Fold each of these.
Amino acid sequence: MSADDFPLIGAAAARAREAARVLRTLPTETKDAALVAMAEALLERADEVLAANAADVEAAAADGTPESVLDRLRLTPARVSGVADALRQLVALPDPVGDVVRGSTLANGLQLRQVRVPLGVVGIVYEARPNVTVDAAGLCLKSGNAALLRGSASAHRTNTALVAVLTEAAEKAGLPAGSVALLPADRASVGELLNARGLVDVVIPRGGASLIQRVVTESRVPVIETGVGNCHVYVDASADPAMAEAIVLNSKTHRVSVCNSAETLLVHRDVAFLPRLLTALAEAGVTLHGDDAARAAHDGVLPATDEDWATEYLSLDMAVRVVDDLPGALDHISRWGSGHSEAIVADSARAIADFTAGVDAAAVLVNASTRFTDGGEFGFGAEIGISTQKLHARGPLGLPELTSTTYVVTGSGHTR
Amino acid sequence: MSADDFPLIGAAAARAREAARVLRTLPTETKDAALVAMAEALLERADEVLAANAADVEAAAADGTPESVLDRLRLTPARVSGVADALRQLVALPDPVGDVVRGSTLANGLQLRQVRVPLGVVGIVYEARPNVTVDAAGLCLKSGNAALLRGSASAHRTNTALVAVLTEAAEKAGLPAGSVALLPADRASVGELLNARGLVDVVIPRGGASLIQRVVTESRVPVIETGVGNCHVYVDASADPAMAEAIVLNSKTHRVSVCNSAETLLVHRDVAFLPRLLTALAEAGVTLHGDDAARAAHDGVLPATDEDWATEYLSLDMAVRVVDDLPGALDHISRWGSGHSEAIVADSARAIADFTAGVDAAAVLVNASTRFTDGGEFGFGAEIGISTQKLHARGPLGLPELTSTTYVVTGSGHTR
């Protein structure tokens, strides 16, 4: 496949490929200077961006877009300033490129070093939030990658303005042309991106379950899967009641629309404080969907079906199931979990060890809220998403996860 | 998708999934005991395996299979003993499962550990060599993974006998049933494997370019791409003549049928010893395919076309191109290379630095033969292949590359 096979994205991908050859060799200070210049340009030219955004919001509102989606789409001077700050914060993070991951001198004297290098050309497919345009461009550039950004049609005027500001500043600061490009918002441009093997090194979807599903099943380009979180909190028989209540409430209600919030509560049948726990959830406004035992423990619990176990509610709903023992909780998580974040509240070291060993997920949280699975909370700085796949990177994706490695083998005429 | 959607492989995949839940928690000593038992059983029951193999070889010979392929298919008592030894050697390698890759205590007191865990269910698709059956099973088990093996139809009797011996010994030693399974050799079983998202965690092809191409373009299951090596040796103007000759000859002729042998020689136009270099290659039996400058430097060089630059010969053929400068070599490699192994012979530190920074490949070899890109040479012990992709693992795939990670986050009632 060559660039000519992709009418919508081929030219941008070919320029990005050329840009990537330069980006991989740029020193950190050049990349950092560009990030600062991009942040300054966003503030200086905020009016352009806000005007474009107002047109997007107006058009979306005229189409009857619900207010919650309009809010995600909307930029304000404070939000523009926020994304500019995020670019500046990238300057403070260490550049992963050039890190020596492993090194040794072999018995024959060959010097072996495994060195981090950029991935190359990274495609990001995302939905309405225009802040992703800036975040993704910044993360890719800091890690030496070229970025092909495919945002939603509803934000296309905003994204066009943002990318114009960013690319002009970046090029003036010494980055190669084509380092960041916005792809057409046509539906077909996603299809091209997913087939552009050899032109694009990796595609990362950021958005809802249906977008992610399309990308992971259709793509011939390697994908880093992010985001779907059907997360559980298991309350063991050994759990402290107050700790269990605090962690369950926090996991469910701290912010309901995010992938690391909890969707299902699993409770050991010997937990005597189940009625109090369900009352606390109900008082916090949570609609409960439970099995027979949960419904017997609290009035007003709706009957749960398999669909409840399978659903990432992203709302103030929670499924509740009483399990016979810890293996029962592990079986439930193995069947229904999405491999994102699974929490246990327990005081038994054996229960904690069995849960930690038995759960297959990006993160296992012991006596802590599921909400801690987050690049910022983990101290990684910015993140481009949370990977729920097993290859390459699992969990929060920081700058090192946007790199590959090369083995550099240095000899003095070595032959076999 | 569930196991019922896959008539040829679904039942084995479902058993492998169950086995993987047990395998991930087994201590190293149990896995090592199973590897020893498998090695012993192979020696004890070598006659069964050799009889099955004789039937495969006879059938293949009757079909007119060329001797080189028959040789790959053929087992001898010495070869059986060799694969048994390979299993024993795995015992000596460290178990990657449980390794703490990264760990810290966060400001809020949360303890963060990133721990290696098995991938789960690994599918291997491979061609005629029956030793892959044993190697792949051993590598997967040592790293706590269940293995679904899809070998070629021509080796199916041999593979069936091998897997019967291996699984019986493994189960007797305490591994769960279903840990290793041989899939039907039908063409359709590969298609099922490549679509078994959720049942299979990763597919690794081991074989020729067409097999790899089918797997990487068709698979909906994440793939680790291995093997195609269109490798170059670049001889810089600063190269020592004797060193250049030794490295070029070794890279090309040490073993021609493997992915880390060199296919194209790139020579700086100021290299005065080009005629002597080409004479040495011709005297070693290499058929040369060159551009005009190469043809002018040596008699009998065939004219090279783009197809020569693109071809992984895997034979005593070599393409030769004279380049104006080091950027010319980088451009050629960027256009035609497969991202496997690229070597430079040079004495100039600047040339070495520019080459190392500018080449995007799994391995860059400085004053050393391309033949060193190898798990054994790198000191990793056994390898399941050499990855030429950028995600997850690049270069020789040892045991750590057959794992994923989980973040284990331990608090004492932490909430956000």
Amino acid sequence: MAASAGPEIERLIGLLAKLPGLGPRSARRAALALLKRRDQLLAPLSDALAEAAARVKTCSTCGSLDTQDPCAICSDGTRDASLICVVEEVGALWAMERAGAFRGRYHVLGGLLSALDGVGPDALRVGPLVARASEPGVREVILALPATVDGQTTAHYLAERLAGAEVTVSMLARGVPVGGELDWLDDGTIAQAMRARRPA
Amino acid sequence: MAASAGPEIERLIGLLAKLPGLGPRSARRAALALLKRRDQLLAPLSDALAEAAARVKTCSTCGSLDTQDPCAICSDGTRDASLICVVEEVGALWAMERAGAFRGRYHVLGGLLSALDGVGPDALRVGPLVARASEPGVREVILALPATVDGQTTAHYLAERLAGAEVTVSMLARGVPVGGELDWLDDGTIAQAMRARRPA
Ligand SMILES: [Zn+2]
Ligand SMILES: [Zn+2]
């Protein structure tokens, strides 16, 4: 791209273009929208990013993101500590929360096993999951993983690893369409899959 | 949207969702990408936005955006001061610069006349354009406006207003597809339309 907009604006466009969903063209549109709406958009977004950079951290219990550690969900005494819902990423946790079908705790794996991408168990938060599942009072681990090859491989691997802990291991029902990533599903589908979950 | 990700992250998602090209879902993905790539993406974008908010201003001559006023283009002595290219918005100016087919100066109107949206001449930078066009040494004003109803209405209005100034008034050739916004065009189309421009 020619440096037509000055180095500061080109740098801003370049960074915006790295966001998923924004290509080089839409990044330019976004930069322009920001620069035209300085007080309503540019300044607040700048503040929100600075605050997120300074304050948001990873929950040492579940792996979610929050400004407190343990996170608000892990600290919430009204939530059912006997249920742990395992998700691939924080985006899937957010989708579960929006669906409002689950009132237990979470465990963010940080990815899926993948032979193709060379992701093994050590790259995921599997050990901490087994440890949490073995704590007294934990009754059920729900594997809310995508219905993809990697998702199902990971689910079966986790079911084996959790066999030693005295917990029921379940999976989301087949309401999740094949190949479907959780965070692209509508809330109703997620709620239904949660209600109809089955043993792994 | 349920406040599933904590107020700070929800605020960030809400602001990202206001960017053109990002809906609520892609804004969540973007927020997650930012939070996962703190050092490579979140911190640099936060800095770039803060710098843009502090340093980028509107050029008092042409209406473009830059960290200096007059902007780099208006200050560039190697550019042809006898040509003024009128564009709707800064995004169109950037598109012209990327096409590399124009080495004169610009004038950013700040919009188009629109009966429907109630945009009259006073809402646009028409007076300053007429003043600039009347300065000695200005030879041609090129109306690089979109080939839409509002774009063409605006072009004809400007041609009338510029009749008193001793300048040639031209328009981009019909290489610009009907309904086409300049900043979505490929560079070759823009360059061709510039070369084949015709009297307004
Ligand atoms: Zn937590
Ligand atoms: Zn300028």
Amino acid sequence: MGDMTTTPASAPAPAPAPKQDRSRATRRRLLEAAVACLAERGWQGSTVSVVAERAGVSRGAAQHHFRTREDLFLAAVEYVAEERSQALRALDGRSRAEVVEALVALYTGPLFRAALHLWVAASDEPQLRPRVTELEARVGREAHRMAVELLGADESVPGVRETVQGLLDMARGLGLATLLTDDAPRRARVVAQWSRLLDGALG
Amino acid sequence: MGDMTTTPASAPAPAPAPKQDRSRATRRRLLEAAVACLAERGWQGSTVSVVAERAGVSRGAAQHHFRTREDLFLAAVEYVAEERSQALRALDGRSRAEVVEALVALYTGPLFRAALHLWVAASDEPQLRPRVTELEARVGREAHRMAVELLGADESVPGVRETVQGLLDMARGLGLATLLTDDAPRRARVVAQWSRLLDGALG
């Protein structure tokens, strides 16, 4: 999904073709609209038409980019997960408490809400399930990798891998709790306490 | 919902009226069928008719017990949560690791799956949302109370309350992870490690 064109190091970067630019911008608008739609309306309420309208794109153009509804929503969740992952990288060098807070924030925003709707729909829809399972595993591995790096965790020490996994499971559980009630003050207290436990466990 | 009749201690227990018995048994069958149905088919696929058929009860009889679809499914999730809470009480006196395992198991079975479908549906349906939010808060408070008791946690010590809350959030997150992939071996390793950390934190 990245830019696959290669440019010789010595050549000046060519001016991007305006048409290709427009196509990329349309694709991005569709992906962002798809995540917002899924987060707000759930799977049942999220159709290609609804997303196209929200993105200000014709239904035909949307189908040019994404052949099926499943293609659109899987790409959307993956796209936003990659954006968030980029944002996490900027935290390198911050304190452990700040990193834990940022990791928990990953699971309490619209992306998590959108992903949750997709997971729940996938658990009942056989044609969606294997693709969502694969995507979720990939996004989960990336989150774990980032967490280990940012927390400065040494996974060669017994128990450290499971400590980090448990932390991400807790973040996911906190995200679920915010689905119905936004309990930010409670969440902040739990995060502060578990950051302390984590400090003890990671040394 | 409990048995509200009172019997003087000295009198022999009266034989229960068969009609009342049948009515209670029907109600229980409907509640159990509703949870199973919600866990397997999700909110969209769970109608009163589907549940009545599964319970072997006429649609009219189902509506005699539960006036609306919302009434049926809220009562079902509450009923099963109470059953699980009763089962937890039997763990009194077990080791901390066993208690943590049992608490996590609360969030990885069909009850959690059913509740999750109800939460996700409620997050999009204004008429369902306040009732599910209230039920979830009540069930959550009870789970916290039981966890504190069974873990022998002293909440007057700073941080202990948040430690137990974080543990239940982690259990919820582990339950969410099992929605698509059943990762029981990973779960067991995370639970074992966090039981050790918990031992350190609770003293």
